[in-house]
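Sequence design from tokenized structure. All designs in this work follow the same two-part layout: the structure record, then the generated sequence. An example of the structure record is given first.
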């Protein structure tokens, strides 16, 4: 199925076969400039802990149009329109996403070179994708990514968990995840708040990242201080690192200030 709205990139929906069901994805493809092909490397987007393709809203289409690249977003297993996932997340779920399902998406969509783009926990996954497939990753872009379970991160999750005691909040989440909403919520809060997850860190992975790196973080992010973008920028082996602290942003810079984020991404990918 495809859709095209004036002023946006055409969108195609693709289902990815998975050992536990299937994954839902959308691919936005802008019209190529006259006489020039599209860049080979599409931007592959990894969503946050409560996210989905639908919750990216119109950002992927705008990103595709601005950068002139294909943009791919998919619902991780258990999220959005993808098949349900059963049981708790394994403690290595961030690294495992890169090794398994991200690789599956690339394989079935025929993607070679790529640009990894992730928000929040999806940013941690994008770091792992850039490390796992270093030869094919042309650039890495993170937004509001966490590098470790900081006190601010855990406090923010505790606040959100208390808010979700209101059944209406879970019902709102159900608009995007259906009857998987409770699993999605628990997968986020119970995994991150587990004492067994306290030692998780991107520190061992970042030295394997060698591609150009753009790190965007909101100064007032309720789920992480600026220590996170500092660590991501400092520990990678990237020769070109650009850390952007957005002073008027919280945890959702791409939703709070989409034009500013897209301008930064576009300039970064153009080498500016």
């Amino acid at each position: 199925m495809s859709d095209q709205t004036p002023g946006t990139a055409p969108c195609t929906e693709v289902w990815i076969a998975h050992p536990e069901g299937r994954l839902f994805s959308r691919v936005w493809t802008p019209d190529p400039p006259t006489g020039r092909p599209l860049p080979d490397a599409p931007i592959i987007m990894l969503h946050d802990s409560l996210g989905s393709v639908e919750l990216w809203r119109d950002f992927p289409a705008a990103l595709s149009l601005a950068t002139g690249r294909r943009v791919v977003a998919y619902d991780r297993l258990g999220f959005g329109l993808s098949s349900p996932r059963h049981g708790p997340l394994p403690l290595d779920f961030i690294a495992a996403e890169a090794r398994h399902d991200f690789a599956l998406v690339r394989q079935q969509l025929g993607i070679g070179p790529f640009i990894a783009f992730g928000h929040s926990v999806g940013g941690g996954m994008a770091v792992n994708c850039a490390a796992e497939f270093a030869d094919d990753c042309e650039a890495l872009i993170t937004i509001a990514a966490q590098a470790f379970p900081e006190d601010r991160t855990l406090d923010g999750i505790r606040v959100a968990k208390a808010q979700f005691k209101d059944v209406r909040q879970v019902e709102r989440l159900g608009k995007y995840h259906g009857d998987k909403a409770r699993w999605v919520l628990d997968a986020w809060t119970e995994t991150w708040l587990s004492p067994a997850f306290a030692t998780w860190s991107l520190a061992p992975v970042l030295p394997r990242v060698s591609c150009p790196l753009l790190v965007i973080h909101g100064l007032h992010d309720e789920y992480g201080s600026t220590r996170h973008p500092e660590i991501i920028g400092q520990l990678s082996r990237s020769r070109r690192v650009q850390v952007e602290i957005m002073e008027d942003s919280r945890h959702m810079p791409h939703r709070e200030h989409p034009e500013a984020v897209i301008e930064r991404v576009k300039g970064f990918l153009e080498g500016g």
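Residues 19 and 116 are 23 Å apart (CA to CA). We note this feature because it recurs in several other targets discussed in the main text.
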